[in-house]
Structures are given as C-alpha cells and as structure tokens.
Records
---
Amino acid sequence: QKEVEQDPGPLSVPEGAIVSLNCTYSNSAFQYFMWYRQYSRKGPELLMYTYSSGNKEDGRFTAQVDKSSKYISLFIRDSQPSDSATYLCAMMIKAAGNKLTFGGGTRVLVKP
Amino acid sequence: DVKVTQSSRYLVKRTGEKVFLECVQDMDHENMFWYRQDPGLGLRLIYFSYDVKMKEKGDIPEGYSVSREKKERFSLILESASTNQTSMYLCASSLDELKFFGPGTRLTVL
C-alpha cells in the first residue's frame, strides 16, 4: 500500500463547477500538507500548503486537512479551462532535508 | 521569484552513455532534490542535498549519483544509462517546507 493515495482521474467538469480533489495517507507523523499543480510537460508549481489540521483559503482555492481521518482536500471554485492540469498532493515530516512524499496526481479537465 | 533552471528540456542518449543533468537555483536555498516522474508511479525521490558537498539517498538511488560542489548547483549523474532510466527528471530546491521545482528534463535512453 502506498503511503499517500490519490485517485488518478481524469476528473472532467464543466466550466464554473467546483472541483473537489482529495488524498488519503497512512503516516500520522506527516505535519505539512501541500498541493501542487502541474501543466503538461512542465514542472510542478506550489499552489497551497497547510500545517497540521484546518482550512486555508487563497482566492478560488481552499485546502482542508483532517488529521484524525488522515484525509486532505483541495477545492477549486468557479473552475476555468486554465485550471486543467494534474494536481499533486504532497506531505512532509519536518526533518533534515524536508523530504516530500507525493500522491500519484489527479488529472483535471475543465470543459468550456 | 524563485527560479530553478535545468540544463536541458529534452535529452536523448544511448544505453551505456554517461549522462549529466544540471540544476541551478538562484535563491540561496540550502536544500536541493532530484526526483523522477513516471506515469502511475508519481514523483520518486532519487537523491537530495542539504548543504554543499552533502548528499543523502532518497527512495530510488540505484544507478544514480549526485554532485553538489556549489550551493546553487546540484547535478544528477547516470554513470551508465539504461532504458529503464527513461523518465521525466525534476529538480527542486527548498526554503524550509516550501519546495520549488524546475521545468523538468525529459530523458529518453535508446
């Protein structure tokens, strides 16, 4: 079993809909939780990060962490075709080197 | 803006060749990383470095080595390239918990 599980999709939604993405994990020691967006043939770009449990909002993006359930979510409101990308969750235990453990990524397609 | 650059976007090499992938960051970050990304397997850590001349093995170091002679530069070396090393290679650098990636090098080994 992988340490971080993420549905690969693809997830197809109409423009303007809410995109809901999630990851589950097994290691309760993870402290930092990130979401990256990766466009085709590009490197991942950091979207949001949270420390421990709770919600964080940034514009159209909301990240949620539920450590008791070992479950994290990313919501994209008013989705746009430019949001079409692969979204990667990642988690970290703060230590020397700050190694990240990634989910496999969910491919999202927002149709005009 | 943090900038992480990689020497090549696309590279084609032959089996047995020695391959160098270069990564440079301009933000004075202590930590630098090399990942490979494959369909269905996600990003996997090959090596990382938290200081000049320091290196640590990641999850899949076999067949790779690294070099960090200067703080801003982290090189990944394939001593004798094999076809199973065909992949997308991503370099990253980090300030504390925030990690920034380069554009990636798509390596094909024939």
---
Amino acid sequence: SAVISQKPSRDICQRGTSLTIQCQVDSQVTMMFWYRQQPGQSLTLIATANQGSEATYESGFVIDKFPISRPNLTFSTLTVSNMSPEDSSIYLCSVEDTNYEQYFGPGTRLTVT
Amino acid sequence: GQQVMQIPQYQHVQEGEDFTTYCNSSTTLSNIQWYKQRPGGHPVFLIQLVKSGEVKKQKRLTFQFGEAKKNSSLHITATQTTDVGTYFCAGKKSNDYKLSFGAGTTVTVRA
C-alpha cells in the first residue's frame, strides 16, 4: 500500500480566491486521482492526473476551474480557482497500485465564505 | 454513463446482529472494490473482487460478486462498535481506469 499526505488538511478561504492542494506519495505511481466529497455524500471524481500529460477531467469539471499539475511520479497539485461557497467540500487525492487498488490521502477540508 | 447503486443508505444495527449492504451496476463490471470510511476519516481499501461468483472473507466480513458481475454484497456478522462507518462499493468497467463509487451505506451500532 502507498502512504499519501495532503496539504493543507483544512482551510477557510474567501470567495473569489484560489487554493492549491498538494498531494505527496511515498512511492512512484502512474495514476493519481482527485476526488471531491460533499459532507455525507459519496466520492465524485474530478480528474485523473498522469505524469507528463494533461489531466483528464470528468463531466462537469474544467481545467480553468480545477487546474492540476503532475510534475513527477510522486507529487500532484489541484487548484480550486475563483472559489465560491459551492466549492466547500473535502478534496481527496488517491493513487492506484499495480493491483488496481486505490489508496486515499487524508483529505483537505475546504470552507469558502 | 455507468452508475453504481448501493442500498441501504443507512443501517442502524444492534450490536451482535448481522447486516448486509448491496451494490448494483447498470453495466457489467471488470471488478468491484469495497472501501470503509470512518467518521472524519478517508476511504480505506477493504477488498477487490474480480471473478464471477467470487466470495471472499475477512474475519466477520463476507464479500460476494454476482455471477453476472453486475452486483455485489457485503455481509457483516456479529456487528461490533468498530464496524461504525460508511461502506462504499466502487465498480470498474472493462477497459476503463476509473472507479464509479456507490452512494455508500452509513452504519451505526446500538450497544
């Protein structure tokens, strides 16, 4: 299994600002995923980030709003841009190992006021 | 698109009793995975099922994958307070790298 850390663990931001969330893995992985989880809800995939290529976004999510970087095989960032209260959520990164099992970071709890 | 439906949404269980949560897909899956999320925590991988009709056990937890690879279940026997949390199933279609998560079953336990 992989050990994943995320920064920040939580933040309170004003609307109109941007927040960059970092995800660090203790081993090299090909696939990294970014999810959003509203309180009491399931996980919604935002995008898949592969090293050396553009991230692949799911329906309803666009690069201008959620730009993603993947500079190497152990690190990725997700930026939530021009935030509104509707962006308040928990943001989770995950990685997939060679057995196709996913391991999640601890999450970033974002509150937009 | 692929949808994975999960029921029930909530399960209130007396300690010591058994319960089952069910997962159904509108399409055939290549595999199905189960995760547990404790209150305030993040999802933790439990198991992956790949073969038609597969049954796997982890102590008091029994996981099944249907013959048609469209449904799955998680059965917990003799529920304990440590079983509290939300259990998610997540399915993957053939030739697809993405997991589609069910809505989750949130379990509370009465001592």
